[in-house]
């Protein structure tokens, strides 16, 4: 049996010394990877952010990525080359990547041209360089322009419709009812078999309130990272023999 | 004798799950802290980024910070309360912090009002919330507005004119001549006694090309983090007895 797990937070490059990062430590994903790897005849591949925590079992194959672009490439590679029974997509993926920067001074001069404001605004940004670079810090006010990244989770069932997919939804400071509603929307949109819904304000070290929701809309509540990892394994392994 | 060291990279909050971070690992700063702490009668205080590497000597007092605002508070506290003989400011400090965000849709509607474009633009951003929050990812194009942060290094000699100050300058892919020139400007502007000048493209693990420049404009070249740490200690300790 083969399991693919993504964990940690992606990081979108601004220049050679700065990035926009997602805070995820990758701890829950690495616990999930370790727990699957202890089952007999289960091969685990983990796509992990460079700076995130790693599982302890050396039998787990680890692929490191930084940006959403690298993540998409590796997820696609894996799903095209190998047939996975279960995919747990716990990585915190940047919603945006940086496309341009402009100083206030540059914006003033560029927006002065005779174009519609928005068109002028969008043309007023300098593209992000892939060459070694560091943004100048000479201007007092700086503007960043960001574009939405493609949704990695939508790729998974497109490439492997037969895999059991566990999606993750993290929101901040909302009611259980609203969280479950949003998780169900993620499930429907991306054809997930399970969604682990959690709220940042209810996570602190190993204490971690999580709702694992199945296709029937039923959910089980867990209160620690270890319990969430075990719950994901029990529910995704139901009826399987390894 | 008392030494204050700053190390690691600051991180400017976007919302509860994202930040703009500086890549610094804090490794050079923690080597410097360890090296000073091995001298007799030297007390070392390290102000370190939360996610950065820590020194091995448990006698070093460690204060953790995340944002530039927290760094300023702690540096000010330390320098007001304690007299330091040497201050090594190696922390990679964010040049900008985020002041507002706007979706393209919000900008279109807000810029449509009858104001001058730049005034409208600056009023078109929603302020960053200090409440628990996560930016919505519903818009395709997003804009960030950032303001320059105060220069932490300029505080040090203002608060303790008698301390020996080591500043750091990191640039990317420039000539040795230009790097030394920029380092001398930093020295003059902030009344540094030494500046360690380095180029991101010449740093790879322990290999680390650094020029330690003194007030006379003379510089010594080092090629590893360990050698830079030892060089800083030798040069700042010259003529001192502990």
Automatic annotation (TrEMBL), chains A, B:
Keywords: Ligase. One of its GO terms (biological process) is coenzyme A biosynthetic process. It is an enzyme of class 6 (ligase). Residues 2-104, 125-236 form the DNA/pantothenate metabolism flavoprotein C-terminal domain. InterPro entries: CoaB-like_sf, CoaB_strep, DNA/pantothenate-metab_flavo_C. It comes from Vagococcus allomyrinae. Its EC number is 6.3.2.5. The lineage of its organism: Bacteria, Bacillati, Bacillota, Bacilli, Lactobacillales. GO terms for molecular function: phosphopantothenate--cysteine ligase activity. This is Phosphopantothenate--cysteine ligase. It comes from the Bacteria.
């Amino acid at each position: 049996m083969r399991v693919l797990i993504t964990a940690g937070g992606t990081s979108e490059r601004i220049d050679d010394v700065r990035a926009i990062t997602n805070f995820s430590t990758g701890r829950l994903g690495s616990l999930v990877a370790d727990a699957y790897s202890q089952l007999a005849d289960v091969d685990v591949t983990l796509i992990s952010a460079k700076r995130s925590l790693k599982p302890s079992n050396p039998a787990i194959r680890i692929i490191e990525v930084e940006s959403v672009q690298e993540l998409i490439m590796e997820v696609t590679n894996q799903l095209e080359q190998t047939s996975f029974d279960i995919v747990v997509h716990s990585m915190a993926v940047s919603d945006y990547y940086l496309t341009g920067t402009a100083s206030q001074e540059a914006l003033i001069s560029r927006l002065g041209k005779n174009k519609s404001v928005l068109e002028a605004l969008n043309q007023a940004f300098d593209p992000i360089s892939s060459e070694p670079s560091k943004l100048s810090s000479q201007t007092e006010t700086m503007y960043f322009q960001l574009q939405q990244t493609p949704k990695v989770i939508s790729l998974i069932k497109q490439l492997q419709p037969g895999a059991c997919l566990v999606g993750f939804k993290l929101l901040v400071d909302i009611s259980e009812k609203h969280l479950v509603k949003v998780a169900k929307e993620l499930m429907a949109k991306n054809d997930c078999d399970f969604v682990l819904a959690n709220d940042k304000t209810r996570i602190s070290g190993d204490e971690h309130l999580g709702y694992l929701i199945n296709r029937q809309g039923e959910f089980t509540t867990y209160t620690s990272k270890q319990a969430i990892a075990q719950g994901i394994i029990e529910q995704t392994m139901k009826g399987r023999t390894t």
